[in-house]
Each structure stands twice: as structure tokens, then as C-alpha cells.
Amino acid sequence: MKIEILGPGCARCQQLAKNAEEAAKALGIPCELVKVTDMAKIVGYGVMATPGIVVDGKLKGSGKLFTVDEIKGFLAG
Amino acid sequence: MLKIFTMLANLVVYDWLGMEKGRHLTEALHFFIEDTTKIFFLLTVIIFFVSIIRSFFTPERTRRFLSGKKLFLGNILAAMLGVVTPFCSCSACPLFIGFVESGIPLGVTFSFLISSPMVNEVALVLLFGLFGWKIAGLYLISGLLVAIVAGIVIGKLNLERYVQDYVWQIRMGEVQEAVMSWRERIEYARGYVKDILRRIWPYVLGGIGVGALIHGYVPEDFLLRYAGPGNPLAVPIAVLIGVPLYSNAAGVIPVVQAVMSKGLPLGTTLAFMMAVTALSLPEATILTQVLKKELLIIFFGTVSVAIILVGYLFNFILS
Questions:
Q1: Are the CB atoms for B290 and B97 separated by under 8 Å?
Q2: What ipTM score was computed for the predicted complex, to two decimals?
Q3: What amino acid positions of A are annotated as catalytic residues?
Q4: What is the pLDDT of residues B237-250, one digit of tens each?
Q5: What is the domain range of residue A22?
């Protein structure tokens, strides 16, 4: 599974990356975590409020620091 | 209703601790207890309700609403939407791109970018709790005014060529907007309150602590001598000092409240707080990704001048 964290590297983006890692570990899903800082790519996903989270190329949510539980939901479905 | 926090501080300081009224340490402690309890209570309650309101104003919806709006009306709407649309400075770039890509004029986009961080809920809560609703209202209105006027000025200058060229090539992806249920809105608001409190509590405590020391120990007319109405440079200097203090509105406002009680004029105080919230070096660095140097300088210059004018205006009216 590929998880992309969209954001310029602010504190919230880093926390989101940590939460995503934890969520993947808890579910035992092997995943590749990529931090996307390129503006064109971020906006290309339609995101105007960072941080955003993309799982396997699909935007799951943005503008919010998602919790570990919420990310588990993204990874499951 | 907020008297309850004064009563609480009375109870703790005078009754439980049996401290003597009028002494420096007593006054400082009283101020600290009253203000920390009051501010954390207000932050929790008000940010919760503001977040519920905000859950209706997504950036996507704001963008759709503003696209096609002309200068003037567009600037007024953008400044007002800036207050209720959730925004953090790290989102400044994608938001900027999203706005201009959908045909929102540059000046209107800037009105939003100025008002959104300046007239934010944390600053307003602190101003309301520490200064009262009148000054919070003045800040809100003059903040909107700065955002509208600076946006119109930038719009009139036709500066599109100073936007980084790649910005015009970007195509914004489409998102299908999820409709939130009330349960999700409440969940969102709770998460938002937690997120904000976790980030700002050390600054609030630190700011109120320093403010308490100033209240207790600094002589009443101390600042009148240096930064009073007699010093015409006080407003621009206050703005200059405010720029590097960004993102610490939470820590700065309690200190400013204490400082104002020692004789800093209201106009200078307002200008200083606006500089803290609206003009930030980290945000400027982030914005270099989408703005060329010239536009960044014009943006900062216009906002600074507008803030300084607000400072002079209130000092003049109220003196």
C-alpha cells in the first residue's frame, strides 16, 4: 500500500505522517510512506488545505490532522 | 458571566492562600489564576462552536463562492470568508493556487490571505477574554478593513506577472466533497479544539505568566514615557517588533494586555497585534513558492502600511 502525506512539511504534516505509520503498523499492513511537498502535485489532488492524505492514489481527506483511528478507516476501506 | 473567574481567583488567593491584598506577588498570582482559567474556558467553548460553524465553510466552498466575483465586492466577501474558513499558514500555497486557478482575481485572493490569519478565532477569543468585547470588535472591524483595502490596492496594481509562472499552468484536481453529518461536525470540532489547545497551551501559560509579572511589578506609567502618544514612531516600531513574533498570538496577547494597562495607547496596541498575526516571516518564506519577490514585498509593504495607518487612526481618535 502506498500512503502519501500531502503538505509542505509543517508540524501538522509530520504528525499526520506519524499517525499514518502507526495506523499501518497497528493493522499489520506493509506500506510505503511518501511525503509529497510539491505544490503542483498537492493541488493536483484537489487539496487546498494541508495536510492531506492519499492512499493508493486516492485522496482520503485533507485540512485536518487525522487520528490514528481515522487513518485505520482509510486503510481498511 | 466572566466574573466567576475573578471570584475563583479571589477565593484561591485571598481566602485559601491568605495572601495580603495590594502586594506585588498577590496581584501577579491573582491575575495569573483569573486569566488562565478564563482563557482556557473561553478557548475551549468558543473554538468548539466556531469549528462547528467552520465545518460549513470548507475552502472548496469558499473558492466556488468567490470565483467570478469582481474587485470591491469580492474583496469584502473574501475578507469576511477569511474569518470563518479554516486556514493554517502551511496551507497558504495550495489555497493561493486553488483560488487563482479558479479565476478569483489576485486582489480578492489577497484579501482572503490577509484576513484569514489576522482575524482568527484564537486571537479574537484572547482579545475578548482579556480586553473585552469592544476592543475585540475594533480588532475584528479594523482587521477586515486592512484586508479589504490592501487587497483592493494589490488588485488595482495588476501584478499577475509577479506570480510564479508555473502557478498558471497548474490544473486543480477535482474532489467530491463529503457532506458531513452532525455527528461528524461535532467530532471535527472536538478534534479541532484538542489540536489547537495542544499547540498553544504553553504559549498561553507563558504569555499570561509574563503578563502577570508585568501587572504585579512594572510601574503604572512606565510605558507612557517611551511608547506613549508623545512618540510618533511608536506605531511603526510596534509593527516591526510584531513581525518576528508570528504564530504566537496566543502568547503575545496576554503580554500586550498587561503592557497596555501600563500606558501603551490603543492604536499602537492594535497595530502591534495585527503585525503579530498578519505579517509573518515563516509565511513569507512559504509564499515564495507561489509569489515572486516583487509581489511578496508589495504584499508585505501594503499590509504594513495599512496596519500602521490603523494604529495612527485609533491613537488619533482616542486621544
A1: yes
A2: 0.85
A3: 10, 13
A4: 888 888 877 657 78
A5: 2-76
